[in-house]
Amino acid sequence: MVMSLKLTTTLVFVLLVVVLDTAGFGLIFPVLPQLLKNLVHADTSTAARYGGWLSFAYAAMQFVFAPLLGNLSDRYGRRPVLLVSLLGFSVDCLFLAFSGHILWIFIGRILAGISGASYSVAAATVADISTEENRTRNFGLINAAFGLGFIVGPAIGGVLAQFGTSFPFVVAAILSFLNFSLGLLFFKESLKTQHRRRFSWQQANPLAAMKSINKVVLLRMLLLSIVFVTLANHSMETVWAYFTIEKFHWNQQMIGYSLAFIGGLSVLVQAWLLGLLSKRVKDHQLAIIGLCLTISGFILLAFAQSQWLLFVALFIFILGSLQGTALQSIAAASVPENEQGALQGILGAIMGLTTMVGPLTFSFVFSYTTAQKTGFYFPGAAFVLAAILTVGSLLLLFFSFGKRKKQI
């Protein structure tokens, strides 16, 4: 009974860390464009290009350093790595708040990318404290916390922006430092001493770590499946606003309503529906169902001719987000306890890699298929590409399951 209470307390704290961290991250979204316009003395289009390169710099650092921090957490525990991550983000926010030159913004984003392991370490902590019966539910809760932070953060950031472009960054720094302080005082180490392992530079290298995965066919196919669907999901964040403006002439208010709908429903799916289904449906079945729903959602989004059908497509797409948590749970169950940090580091590297490639790819596809001089006009082309990538993810998953059955 005491152990059960301890695990519940740890999970609640991890969820709080994720909510506060992502809310602090989301605070900066509404005001970053204006901050960049002020710094580079340029129009929105030029500021957007700088914003894209800032995202690229952050993602590149995530790709390189997420496996390193994941492996360090397997050696020294989750607590010190998580605390360094939270402190690093706080420093990044101070750079954003008080910088007078674009160079310092890039330095801040690079530092945040290097130390930005809060979600990966939090996920490794959840794997540490979970059993086979509640692992999927717990990963669903942490993903719901992640989504909740991104709903609350931008909303608060928009309100705080009336006090100046620097003020939301100061609040984000305070939130992150509060997170750090709570972790310092209350977060207990979840990785037992007997489950720690020696640090390996080979596994800490993202390319070498992914190469070593090739030796394990089941995990290799599973991670490739995750790469494909993660890449596909970047289509939404990249072209959604541009797509709805181009095809349905939406204004900023309508786009905001749709993002609130996406965020709210995502939290409901991850926090409630997933926990309900995980008691009755196995992880591999949830993954297959979720991928099929995701494919259907992308196709409907691409060809929707009315707004009501667009929201139906969104509803189906968000239900499909079940697959992400199920795949994460399957991956966590595929490695021993002393390699959970390494696994989450690789998943963080995958997120960084797809964040570098995905937005550039989908923005190019959208731009090319909507340009006036292009003979082929199709605003939904990016979503068709996303659907094709998700089909690839589903096929890789079936291949992984087939290999698993042969080994059994």
From TrEMBL:
Subcellular location: Membrane
InterPro entries in alphabetical order: MFS, MFS_dom, MFS_trans_sf, Sugar_transporter_CS, Tet-R_TetA/multi-R_MdtG-like
Record-linked PROSITE patterns: MFS, SUGAR_TRANSPORT_1
Main location: membrane
UniProt keyword annotation of Cell inner membrane present: no
Annotated keywords: Membrane, Transmembrane, Transmembrane helix, Transport
Record Pfam families: MFS_1
Cellular-component GO terms for this entry: membrane
One Gene Ontology term of the molecular function aspect: transmembrane transporter activity
Domain Major facilitator superfamily (MFS) profile: 10-405
Topology relative to the membrane: Multi-pass membrane protein
Transmembrane segments: 50-69, 81-104, 110-129, 141-161, 167-187, 217-234, 254-274, 286-304, 310-333, 345-370, 376-399
Keyword Ribosomal protein: no
Coiled coil ranges: none
Superkingdom: Bacteria
Task performed by this protein: Resistance to tetracycline by an active tetracycline efflux. This is an energy-dependent process that decreases the accumulation of the antibiotic in whole cells. This protein functions as a metal-tetracycline/H(+) antiporter.
Protein family: Belongs to the major facilitator superfamily. TCR/Tet family.
Protein name, per record: DHA1 family tetracycline resistance protein-like MFS transporter
